[in-house]
Amino acid sequence: VTTGHAFVLNVAAAWQFSAKGRAVNFPGAAADHLNAVEASDALYTGALTLMWHGVLRVGGIEQAILGKVGSDASTSVPFDFRTDNAAVPQLAFIRARTTGDFNDRLRIWDSTADISLNIFHTLAVTASTGLVETTPTFYIDAIPETPTTAQVGSGQVTGVGADIRSGARGSPQDNPMNGVIVWAGIWARALSQAEISWLHAEPYAFLQP
Questions:
Q1: What is the structure's pLDDT at 63?
Q2: pTM (2 decimals)?
């Protein structure tokens, strides 16, 4: 796991008990989120794995899963893992650099696999390098998928020292989540399919000696 920073609950996000134990409820308001201050981007501009376990209640809006997004979401994104705005949501993942025209500095990777609402899922994305053009792999409940992109951005991923957030982004497009988070993790390498499957089945396995 890349950092040991504590996440802080903001606004109406609140602890609750769920079928999977203690969890954080996001009611879908614009400023409700978990937040961890992380001024450095050094651990997040290379190979990366993001994992999240919880429930999405609604579609039709983009919802922030895990992100380190500055005020300009098109130029300051070491990573932005979210859903799209389809009625039955699908995954999206953005990485970017700070210079160049819009289509030259970022890629938005889109899934074609649906995320069923109101049931628990493990959602993950891996990237094997810190280059904008590196094709990531999406996982829904440990099932892999290769996404597509319409952008042609390339170059080294950068950031502006934004906080790490779940449940809402740090940009003007907050993308609030309506759902429940049980756990989330960030690794500074691309986990293998076997490791993703293991953590889907045993989410706290990485804490075992």
A1: 93
A2: 0.88
Distances (CA, A) of 64 to 11, 99, 168, 178, 205: 16, 24, 5, 10, 25
- Say if residues 164 and 68 touch (Cβ distance below 8 Å): yes
Helix (H) or strand (E) holding 180: strand 178-187
In the block, tokens 């995954």 appear at 91
Pull the structure tokens for residue 194: 């076997």
* pLDDT of 119 over the 80 cut: yes
Decide: 154 and 104 in contact? Cβ < 8 Å.
yes
- Residue 127 in contact with residue 102, Cβ under 8 Å? no
Closest C-alpha to 123, from 63, 77, 171, 34: 63
- Measured CA to CA, the distance from residue 154 to residue 130 in angstroms comes to 10
Of 18, 15, 81, 28, the C-alpha closest to 57 is: 28
Please work out, in degrees rounded to the nearest 5, the angle formed at the alpha carbon of residue 55 by the alpha carbons of 170 and 114.
90
